[in-house]
Specification:
The complex is a heterodimer. By secondary structure, chain A is mainly β. Chain A has no helices and 11 strands. Chain B has no helices and 9 strands. The chains are: A mainly beta, B mainly beta.
């Protein structure tokens, strides 16, 4: 069965960095686009970033451009989110999510990880 | 990109139907059929209910249906059940490879 497991979260001071990982299993990871979606405590969902199935294209929400980098290692079935210059407003549960469309990216998130909490605080 | 507009809360009795609206703009909901809906129970990850405006993934009951007219998408839940009590989010493509969610709607089953 499809599984996505995030790791790497925790408490970090403003301005510091953190790298999240999302390990995939149960499907052909290299055939699917992957996304990061976050949810601040008590708030709604916010799309953060996407990476094409082959890593050739990456896009971000404006608020993280230049600070966050999404990447993937298809040989390790792992998705990453490198987060630099973290701000208190980045505090959220971060989910990795698979795009439903094989070989495409339509923003239909059919499988989600359990989420990992990132807290940015001094 | 502003969040899509959803009602904060809706409610209904078991067996009834409820509809949740999701209003965007001509640049997102009105421009593309890349609209999806998600159900989220407290402390859990979201679950895909509807994609491509009105398609259901396998395993999602046909009590859940989606539609779109102009800049407004809608999710209808018929035959309400206690387990439908959850938060619901719509999501739309915004162009230039970006996506935006609605603010979320809390469904209470009376």
């Amino acid at each position: 069965q499809v599984q996505l497991v995030e790791s790497g979260g925790g408490v970090v001071q403003p301005g510091r960095s953190l790298r999240l990982s999302c390990t995939a299993s149960g499907f052909s990871f290299s055939s699917y686009g992957m996304h990061w979606v976050r949810q601040a405590p008590g708030k709604g969902l916010e799309w953060v970033a996407v990476i094409w199935y082959d890593g050739t294209n990456r896009y971000y929400i404006d608020s993280v451009k230049g600070r966050f980098t999404i990447s993937r290692d298809n040989s390790k079935n792992t998705l990453y989110l490198q987060m630099n210059s973290l701000r208190p407003e980045d505090t959220a549960v971060y989910y990795c999510a698979r795009d439903l469309t094989v070989g495409g990216t339509n923003g239909w998130f059919d499988y989600w990880g359990q989420g990992i909490l990132v807290t940015v605080s001094s | 990109q502003s969040a899509l507009t959803q009602p904060r809360s809706v409610s209904g009795s078991p067996g009834q139907s409820v509809t949740i609206s999701c209003t965007g703009s001509a640049s997102d909901v009105g421009a593309y059929n890349y609209v999806s809906w998600y159900q989220q129970h407290p402390g859990k990850a979201p679950k895909l209910l509807i994609y491509d405006v009105n398609k259901r993934p396998s395993g999602v009951p046909d009590r859940f249906s989606g539609s779109k007219s102009g800049i407004t998408a809608s999710l209808t839940i018929s035959g309400l059940q206690a387990e439908d009590e959850a938060d619901y989010y719509c999501c739309s493509y915004t162009g230039s490879f970006g996506w935006v969610f609605g603010g979320g709607t809390t469904l209470t089953v009376l």
